[in-house]
Amino acid sequence: MERTVSAGTSGARGTARPATDNPHSPTGPDNPLRVAIIGGGPGGLYAAALLKRLDPTRDITVWERNAPDDTFGFGVVLSDETLGGIEHADPHVYEALQRHFIRWDDIDIVHRNTRHTSGGHGFAALGRKRLLEILHTRCRELGVDLRFHTEAPEGLPQTHDLVIAADGIHSTTRETYADVFRPRVTTHRCRYIWLAADFPFDAFRFEIAETEHGVMQLHGYPYAADASTVIIEMREEVWHAAGFDELGEAESVERCAKIFAEALRGRPLKSNNSAWTTFRTVVNDRWSHGNVVLLGDAAHTAHFSIGSGTKLAVEDALALAACLEEQESLEEALTAYEAERRPVVASTQRAARASMEWFENLALYLDQPPRQFAFNLLTRSRRVTHDNLRLRDPLFTEAVEREFGCPPGTPPMFTPFRLRGLTLRNRVVVSPMDMYSAADGVPGDFHLVHLGARAMGGAGLVMTEMVCVSEEGRITPGCAGLYTGRQAEAWKRITNFVHDRAPGTAIGVQLGHSGRKGSTKLMWEGMDEPLEEGNWPLVAASALPYKPFSQTPRELSRAQLTDIREQFAAAAGRAARAGFDLLELHCAHGYLLSGFLSPLTNRRTDAYGGSLEKRLRFPLEVFDAVRNVWPGERPMTVRISATDWADGGTTAEDAVEIARAFAAHGADAIDVSTGQVVADERPEFGRSYQTPYADRIRNATGIPVIAVGAISSWDDVNSLILAGRTDLCALARPHLYDPHWTLHAAAEQGYTGPGAVWPTPYRAGSRRPQTGRTDAPKPRLTLGS
Description:
Layout (H helix, E strand, L loop, with lengths): L2 E4 L4 H5 L18 E5 L3 H13 L4 E5 L11 E4 L1 H10 L1 H10 L1 E3 L2 E5 L2 E5 L4 E5 H15 L2 E3 L8 H4 L2 E4 L6 H5 L1 H4 L1 E15 L6 E8 L2 E11 L2 E9 H6 L7 H11 L9 E2 L6 E8 L3 E2 L2 E3 L14 H18 L3 H31 L9 H9 L7 H7 L1 H11 L12 E3 L2 E3 L3 E3 L14 H12 L4 E8 L16 H17 L4 E7 L10 H4 L12 E2 L13 E2 L2 H20 L4 E6 L4 H6 L14 H4 L1 H13 L6 E6 L10 H13 L4 E5 L17 H11 L3 E4 L5 H9 L5 E4 L1 H5 L3 H8 L37
Parallel strand pairs: 2-3, 2-10, 3-9, 6-12, 10-18, 21-22, 21-30, 22-23, 23-26, 24-25, 26-27, 27-28, 28-29, 29-30
Antiparallel strand pairs: 1-11, 4-8, 5-8, 6-7, 11-14, 11-15, 11-16, 12-13, 13-14, 17-18, 19-20
Helix pairs in contact: 2-5, 2-11, 3-4, 3-11, 4-5, 11-12, 14-15, 16-17, 19-22, 23-24
């Protein structure tokens, strides 16, 4: 299990001398800036060289407790982007690096004795010791005072204008001022060890070993003409089962070499005081305090599987040096540095976490088709996508598409998908979106235009908003319903339009009950705020208000549970007669059925509360009642919140069991959302941030899933589908921005075919409009002076 620790209880904090607010003028020959750098790794050394080069009058000292040639790990990978920054900032360092770089383009993925190679990626690496030597030389040339075998003295903030804490993941500076920086350190699930081989791999190599103890993986890449970095990684439980916890360093190294003997060509592995460790993600609320600033691993870490540690530290140094030059004061410079770097680091950490979790859950993917497995690995961080992989290696990508079943020229998102008796012509779903525009629960002209436009926009499936099963089950007075015949007739008008005017597009209904989140204002008048007048009583699994100012619901009695179950069944019957093609049961986002599933909102002591099995009981009873009246050939899906984003709530493991339970009762797919269950949730937002939960359910259970949540581009959809992380992708806001999102995605990819059919009256617009010329004529002739 992951363990998150908020640092700040260190005894050092109580006796720390305070950081100061820049006691000296930041520049000037009469009073040169005095800079103390704690830590002689690449980030600290490069910061020293840059600051000294920009102003030779600066007095810069680097304290490093280890020897000059002590280092941990072997090779360092730098991106072209980082190298470009180095080239512009210090050509001397860039030229020295260039002389020692090993460059290559390929990634090899070896799994079950099959190797798949993808090219066009572009890597550059060199030995970590060589990198340090280059930076040592440059610092000495510039006049930086390097002090090895020396702990940084106390009181540096009082004796120096600027203190740069580049003292790594175990930063004592960060701990000293933990009450200000407020670090959070999360320990993850795998053990790994840094080693080296005495030959160069000819590609970045990922090799999977399925042992009697569990799955192990090798990450390897060349960093010199005669050497490669080798990282061996496995889940904690596999590490224990294999007995590595009882082996010394030499025995561990020998055992690893045996397990991956084929990849290593029978050669031994080398260590460098190597030890098994677990990766820890470091996040800080602040990066500076007075004249003390964090840099590199002291400020943030990102998992080694995307090769970002040294890269981030070097980029931090570049940004810090630039901000010190550009800003009038030290305070403004440190504020600008953090503002510039924090979004970049956050994005990298999200990508690194996605990559790390992919390897943590590697066992889920072992039975994927071989090329899909390779594609899934390559796109695991979401930094590499289907579209840019097509540019890097079109032959590899085409082979993956053929294995997946894409007809020639057909992007993965435009392949069909079957749910029970319904075949969707593509993988795009217009996600349910509450519109709060009904009158007495009756959908009107707005809904006809809203859903009709999106149906003609090309999506395979268009979903209604949550349609309430009773008047008391509404979220707001503007919510649509299916608890009267008049409402059902209004919905039939809409389904008829979709079937007549957008043939090939399916329309689904989502049925739900608001539970404790009902009787509130329209979203734009005050989301989740109780009505000022005209409130109706609320019911829920337990008598717990959603927010402190929310109405407290009544805990449902057995008789009320029966009534609500019958309301769902009656609404499902009306939905069937109204002509909907698919029905989704809403068990997410803290509404009534979701409130039964989460231990945070279900405190019942009867047969409907307690264990997960008991918390599932009422939602499953409702599902069974609906399934019994819903036509057998039409599919049913269930939307769930796969995590509550809160301590003690639904976990990813719970979500897998919830999905299994609904599938056992006849659910055809699980629509995997997250959160909105408790008001004090802490979601980890980001691109496609909910997709890992859908991925886990799909690959742990084999149940079809719908992924949803910040999926915004057709490239994301293609990537997720082809990697086998989801079967369908539901998009909400993109369809508000562009009702014809799916058809435009087809046009932008040059696709015409059965997966994206333009309505006949619109076919003249099926090609992207021409735009004015924006490029200037190129010179035809250049004459010498």
